[in-house]
């Protein structure tokens, strides 16, 4: 997969978040919740007008260009929030975390800001650059889509169900577009034509004739998916207060962060159990039976989703903003990081395998039925 060039114009525009955030942090007129809402909406509106006037042809070619350009700006804002909350730089966005979204100051909030300000930011620049050069970016968009949706599925319910539900301000309703954009963007991305495959029908037919034992990589991935499925189910039962001794030991000695009243870890484990676990079962089926052409696309979506989820979960489990009693004990760090890193790495290896050699997943071309000689 070719990596498209980054969009320089979008990058320059997004970096305008630095001086703007610094200036707004010193304006007392927006030091109350409604002021933050109106100022945020005004800035996003002016930003869209600026992008439209500078890149009208790109937006006409692909409206997602405007989405990626605006979101690249908010990614820089999120990175400023994370760096400010961790004390690596002056707090440019203190007014927003105080009067807008105070739950961004939690450990989970800080790490989703880090992810948005780094991984998502690079994806936005790459996808905007691909649109400017009229190149394909479907695979990058699928990865972003999974990552973006996962962050929303955990963060928004966690804000409502956790201990910060009393801190919800009017700025919370600015997240409504974040619920609508992935639906619209997802439809556009999935409707884009796939890149032409380099596999010929003969190559696909030959690959699909191979049994599982002749495909050791697929066999290893199936074994991984089985263990990952049990791990996903187990952690889901843990947050549901399963009375098994193993669940009790795990939540107190290995991942006490799952008990944190902020609710983000509990929501994360439930999302994994109800969405990731069924996907693992379907992926096992697709690795055994040929012709499941849907798997390569969905592996990218779930690789992005699990990558974002594990980054936020692992970081928040050891962050100083997490109360000491809920952090991972030092004697459990090795097992915690090994298990969670493998859990994050596996879906990426699966996605790479599907992109690297997609012949097994191609739909068989219609043709005349095969004639078998009668054996006597």
From TrEMBL:
One of its GO terms (cellular component) is endoplasmic reticulum-Golgi intermediate compartment membrane. Residues 61-186, 217-351 form the EXPERA domain. Pfam families: EBP (PF05241), TM_Tm6sf2 (PF26083). Keywords: Membrane, Repeat, Transmembrane, Transmembrane helix. The chain crosses the membrane at residues 33-52, 64-83, 103-128, 140-162, 168-187, 219-240, 269-288. It comes from the Eukaryota. The keyword Repeat applies. It is found in: Endomembrane system. GO terms for biological process: lipid homeostasis; regulation of lipid metabolic process. The keyword Transferase does not apply. GO terms for molecular function: identical protein binding. Signal peptide: none annotated. It is a multi-pass membrane protein. PANTHER family: TRANSMEMBRANE 6 SUPERFAMILY MEMBER 2 (PTHR14568:SF9), TRANSMEMBRANE SUPERFAMILY 6 MEMBER 1/2 (PTHR14568). Belongs to the TM6SF family. This is Transmembrane 6 superfamily member 2.
